[in-house]
Fold:
Amino acid sequence: MRARWQRSCLGAIALSTLYGLCFALPGQGERTGGECARDYIALNRMTTELPKEEVAQRRIRSAESVVKLVDEMGVLCRQGIDDHAIDLIVDNLKDDDDTVRSLIAISLGNIGAKSYRVIPALKIALKMAGPPNNGAPLNVGTLKLSLGPDLGSSSSIPVSIKKIMEAHKLEYGIGDTH
Structure:
């Protein structure tokens, strides 16, 4: 009985929060419906075209654009990203370039709770990443270079998974099932 009451209270809080987001006035940090629709179209186009680029540097720039677009979307717009768009983004986790995989993971982390169902794909991509550098010196001939923390997918994927799980728990009050 108490659990049902708690779920009802959480549901009421979530609905009132969503109600507040839906009626946020433009200029208060939230995009309008037309701007969200434009962003969804751009996101689908970018993620569909990204794997078709033959040059890695172009795929990296495209992946950077995906991260930037998702980052610029407001909370309400990100909540409206559909499963098809997320699937298009996830397909790019299979890219040969580690930087592309890293950027795609970042964009999924920024989407938040809507990306929860793709955590298994992120874990598979993490296995492709190899071990992180963790600031260990890199031997290049006789030089030892200390590169600092690894900026590849071996670092960004775990952070993205954590971010998605925290957003999911916050939104649904559900713990880890992955």
The first strand starts at residue 137 and ends at 140. Residues 1-26 form one domain.
